[in-house]
Amino acid sequence: MTHLDRLESQAIYIFREAFHAFKKPAMPWSMGKDSNVLIWLASKAFGGRVPFPVLHVDTTYEFPEMLEFRDWATKRYNLNLVVKINEEARGRGVGYETHDPVTVTHELKTAALQQAMAEHGWDALITGIRRDEDSTRAKERYFSPRNAEFEWDYKDQPPEFWNQFTTTIKPGEHVRVQPLLDWTEVDIWMYIKREGIPIPRLYFSRNGFRYRSMGCWPITKAVESDAVTIDEIIHELRHTKTSERAGRAQDHHERNAMQKLRAKGFM
Amino acid sequence: MDSAPASVADERDIATAAPTSTSTPPAVSSASSVSSPRQPPAWSYSNPPTSGVAPGEIPAFMHAPSPEAPGQEEEQRLKIVIVGHVDHGKSTLIGRLFFDTNSLPEGKVESIQKACDAEGMEFEYAFLLDALLEEQAQNITIDTTQIQFRTERRNYVIIDAPGHKEFLKNMITGAASADAAILLIDANEGVQEQSRRHGYLLSLLGIKQVLVAVNKMDLVNFSQEVFNNLVSEYTAFLKPLGVEPIHFIPISAKHGHNIIRPSASQAWYQGPSILGALDSINQPPSREGLPLRFILQDVYRFDERRLLAGRIETGKLRVGDEIVLWPNRKRSRVKSIEAWGADVPPTEATAGQSVAIQMTEQIFAERGQIATHGGEPMVESREFEANIFWLHDEPLRQGQPYELRLSTQQVEARITRISRVIDSASLESTAAERTQVAKNEAATVTVRTRRPLAFDNADVITETGRFVLLQNNRIGGGGIIHGETYAAVNAPETASDNISWTEGEVTAEARWEHFGHRGAVLWLTGLSGSGKSTLSVALESALFRKGISAFILDGDNLRHGLCNNLGFSREDRTENIRRAAEAARLLAEAGTVVIVALISPYRAERAKAAGIADNAGIPFAEVFINAPLAACEERDPKSLYKRARSGEIKGFTGIDSPYEAPEKPVLELRTDLHTKEECLGQLLELALKLSNPATRFRQEDSDPGANI
Predict the structure, then answer these.
(1) Which chain B positions have a beta carbon within 8 Å of A204's beta carbon?
(2) B567 at interface of A, judged by CB pairs closer than 8 A
(3) Is domain B379-480 classified as CATH 2.40.30.10?
(4) Range picked from B421-435, B491-505, B589-603, B636-650 for highest mean pLDDT
(5) What is the distance between the alpha carbons of residues A148 and A118, in angstroms, rounded to a whole number?
(6) pLDDT class for B137, splitting at 50, 70, 90?
(7) Main-chain phi, psi angles of B17, to 5 degrees
(8) Which residues of chain A neighbour B67 with C-beta distances below 8 Å?
(9) Among candidates B602, B594, B606, which has minimal Cα distance to B554?
(10) What angle separates helix B224-238 from helix B193-204, to the nearest 10 degrees?
(11) What's the domain range around A179?
């Protein structure tokens, strides 16, 4: 077995454990590359069907291409898509025009997610986070319980070993299930290439720029790149010293911004 | 048979769980039935097909075969855990390794510098991993981190593990998945509590490849003597654990000595640097050559197909193989291996793969079962010895029910004996028997499960030789079964297909609490006329008056109903006893103290009856109602002896059929020597003891688990 085979097998194992353990799992889907790899792996785990709802938290600051991709891929994979906008916060005027990125991210992503959870009663969220994205994500578990307030008790995480996971929760709590935790950015690309997984065009160079990590358009910066194929992207990543989320403003707003965002329920 | 539909209902019907907006499922091996757009829109990207099919023939979103030749992809990524006592420099070593090998992303050094300025300290490599504010403020590692790293030879996953005793659960979380370890010891402080404890836990977790780095050599002036002393001290500690370090390396993580290149200050050291030593570690051996262990995670129903989904932990599985499902040992054959997106369905799958298979026969299958090949049995038992470590604040208590998970098996279990508690820091073991294991202690214990468990000796197949115990729904500790003493069993298969065990929601404990006592079986054996019926009637009413639910299963009464199709041949007597034992077990599970009054002349049959109760966790006591044949014959309450002597009854026990007296009855009552009241007194005492959940009852000393 190759390295990618192992990553794939472990992700499928986690998907199946989660599907068995939880009554109402759901999977946030940003249409980004990692998200699409998740959809692909779920399809493999469950014989070509994604047997739980897929949630798009629409911040209303989405790239139009991402929304087009969403609609196309929803049909392609036969997804049960749920779209959630935090209308209440938008109504209050929360937006990048007037607020700082940490506040907006919290309101339009985390709070919107909380609202969707409350509306649908989901007990598990299958996320696409990876350890190599951020040093707080590096400390995550495959199955990470969150309390009713969405808080991550990073100071007292339950042990997790030998593929035995935290699967029992109290009412109101939920578990973040993270099948891609062991994957790196390069692994994701190698897997997309190997499997031929459709992803949005924005990741590939146009006019000398490409997006390396996708978020809300006002706070997501393209990186200089001429990579128009996956091989070129992989080559570029192997030689770059810039971090993947360097173009994501909310991460760098203040020291430990990600820890603070994540402690409050951000992915 | 009536349980079969329930088991089918338990299967997750993926087809109906999926959205119902369209009836066309995505194609499994052909894209032609996909109703979505055949070409991806211009803003979507997909790599061109490479399988010799012209572009355009394959929708670009469809799975394309691997464009990369096998072997181009890297093999397994080696996982290295860094362990050792707090402040001996684990996080610093990792930070330094990344810094020296130029593996840090741009801006990372600056952001670490900023964090250090904020905390008012000099540049701290450890901040690379100690990302949490609390970790940076206290300069400690709270939770384990994984970070990837490349050398020219291969890729590594470096796992940082906390050195504080209170974060041992996080250390285990990190270390349990490692292939090898670097154990750090501070040259100045020497071998400390966690240096020893971590060394012990590595051996318990089965991590055999260990490098020992003696750090902070700069603080001892790079003294060879200090180094050599540490080497001998620590080697002596590790030796009894079976851990033999590959290298001892003198380093200074802070100043970069012997991290990626030799240290000029330690010319006396000829061995490799950390980087060189890492590259000398071997890949873990392949699991393919081991016996097949395919663990079932779920059974999915797609259309007409029923798929067994799970992972092959070890060995190989081929289409056409006959497999046995443990623990109930049903046999069937592999019809197909399903793979979504594969052009040609695979004909074999190997260790490490997550697969879904179809069987040729619709045998009962459920999560928790493990498939093996016929000639490679597992151990199936309700009792075993294990080495455990405990991580929860609440101690692990003997006799308490815990949820045990082994692979995907889930069963209620109790610790029936704690034979040895080991101080993992000193390796000293307490000789006196204990009734609990505290946080961060390790112990050798006897585990008893409510239902039979299928497992392997961890020395042979690690994956199915270890388990976890849950405390308050969280993993509380782990155990490793070194089953040298357990011979693999090959008991006959269960007789009928499609049967399962339906678990109720009312636990045994809830019943005990409700009734104020627990169910039990008193098995009264003895010749006809020895006094079994008389004593059982007396015992039943005595118990009933004490508020204890009691019930007699009398041999004669059983033959009027449940056993009325049985005669007195050896075969029929065996069946008679089996039915009585099963009926007694059910009643006892319902909470009743069952008094069985049955001649049951054969030792082997009584042993089976004991086994039936035992397997259900029901206390069982064999009581020998003893009176000499002459006395029985003289009493002859039913005139049976007279009729046997006259030849009217054939095969009568004691006359022309043998009676095998119990060898070690829990209680023997000589009804010819003692009064009925005396006998009843002893019997009542035993029954009360047996039905009291608080007393630990032993059928015999070698069976410490008989109380559950």
Answers:
(1) 45
(2) no
(3) yes
(4) B589-603
(5) 10
(6) low
(7) -70, -25
(8) 193-194
(9) B594
(10) 40
(11) 3-184+253-263
Q: Which helix (H) or strand (E) holds B197?
A: helix B193-204
Answer whether residue A150 is part of any domain.
yes
Q: Which of B438-447, B591-600, B634-643 has the lowest mean pLDDT?
A: B634-643
Q: What is the spatial distance between Cα B416 and Cα B637, in angstroms, rounded to a whole number? A: 44
d(CA A178, CA B45): 25
Q: Which of B45, B128, B146 sits opposite A201 (nearest CB)?
A: B45
* Interstrand relation of B593-597 and A223-224 (parallel, antiparallel or unpaired): unpaired
Task: Report the amino acid identity of residue B382.
Answer: R
CATH superfamily of B508-691: P-loop containing nucleotide triphosphate hydrolases (3.40.50.300)
- Do B541 and B528 touch, CB atoms closer than 8 A? no
C-alpha B215/C-alpha B190 separation (Å) is 10
A159–B25: do the CB atoms touch at under 8 Å?
no
How far apart are alpha carbons B21 and B560 in whole angstroms? Answer: 60
Please count the residues of chain A. Answer: 267
Domain residue ranges of chain B, discontinuous segments joined by +: 78-279, 293-373, 379-480, 508-691
CA–CA distance, A109 with A266 (Å, rounded to integer): 7
Distance, in Å, from the CA atom of B144 to the CA atom of A160, rounded to the nearest integer, reads 11
In a domain, A240, yes or no: no
Tell me which CATH homologous superfamily contains domain B293-373. Translation factors (2.40.30.10)
Give the closest of B18, B44, B111 to A72, CB-based: B44
Q: Which CATH superfamily is domain B78-279 in?
A: P-loop containing nucleotide triphosphate hydrolases (3.40.50.300)
Query: CA geometry: angle at B408 spanning A139 and B310, to 5°?
Result: 90
Smallest CA-to-CA distance from A177 within A40, A20, A44 is with A20
Task: Pick the more confident residue, B313 or B498.
Answer: B313
CATH code for position A132: 3.40.50.620
What 3-state DSSP class applies to B581?
helix
Phi, psi (5° rounding) for residue B633? -65, -35
**A204 assigned to some structural domain:** no
Q: Given an 8 Å threshold on Cβ–Cβ distance, is B466 in contact with A162?
A: yes
Task: Report the alpha-carbon distance of residue B471 to residue B674 in Å, rounded.
Answer: 50
pLDDT over 80 at B179, yes or no: yes
Is the model's pLDDT at A4 over the cut of 90? yes
Beta-strand pair B520-525/B620-626: parallel
E strand spans, chain A: 25-28, 54-57, 81-84, 124-126, 143-146, 174-177, 199-200, 209-210, 223-224
Q: Do domains B293-373 and B379-480 have the same CATH topology?
A: yes
- Partners of B372 in the β-ladder: B324
How far is residue B483's CA from residue A150's CA, in Å, rounded to a whole number? 43
Q: Which of A225, A167, A209 has its CA nearest to residue A17?
A: A167
CB-based contact (8 Å) between B22 and chain A?
yes
Taking residue B291's Cβ as centre, other Cβ atoms within 10 Å add up to: 17
Judged against a pLDDT cut of 60, whether residue B54 lies above it is answered with: no
CA distances from residue B382 to B78, B413, B414, B416, B510 in whole angstroms, order as listed = 36, 9, 10, 12, 22
Q: How many beta-carbon contacts under 8 Å exist across A and B?
A: 243
> Nearest-CA neighbor of A143 among A155, A134, A135, A152?
A152
The mean pLDDT of chain B is 80
The verdict on B129 touching A (C-beta cutoff 8 Å) is yes
**Distance from CA of residue B314 to its chain's centroid?**
16
Per-residue pLDDT at B480: 95
pLDDT at B67 over 70: no
The residue of chain A nearest to residue B306, with distances taken between CA atoms, is: A47
Number of domains in chain A: 1
Classify residue A206: in a domain, yes or no.
Answer: no
B23 to chain A, any CB pair closer than 8 A? The answer is no
